[in-house]
Amino acid sequence: MTTPDLSTDVRWPDVPAVHGWLSLDRRGGWRLKGEPVTHAGLNGFLNTNYRSDSDGNWFVQNGPQRVFVTLDYTPLVLRLDVDSSLTAHTGATTAPAIAAYLDEDGNVLLQVSQGVGLLDDRDLPAFVEQCQADDGGPASDAAFTEVMGGGSGVGSGVIWHGLPLQSIRHAEVAARFAFQPRPEP
Q: What is the distance between the alpha carbons of residues 28 and 6, in angstroms, rounded to a whole number?
């Protein structure tokens, strides 16, 4: 019996990519054909193998196969930890935020070196508490409303950890941050 030569370039079989089966919801939960993924092992696998390509498509690498992810909003969902650090839905600690945005619906988006992430809505009260006005006092409801309405952003009077809260439109997020919310075959 001859032993195969494994020193040569071993190629993956030609496996088609999968579209429309896997999605990421607004709280960082995985969904398979619309149903929540509850199995801890599968969640761990999805989190570990989640990445993007140069075209801004996000996918899970499953051996030779790419399972493209439909995004409910952004490719990352971020949690605000007690010490104000950020953790991605995958469980990875992220770099500190480099920009903060508020859309017309009151969603907070934070840009980190890994990309843009939607702040989990369960962390909005803590985020708002940490925001300040330009003078160091608490940020007013009127200032948040101005940013949501498309106010100038920088100089809006709302600051979070030294970052001015900037206005952004939901419809502009994917193009601005170069990701595909619904990868096409």
A: 40
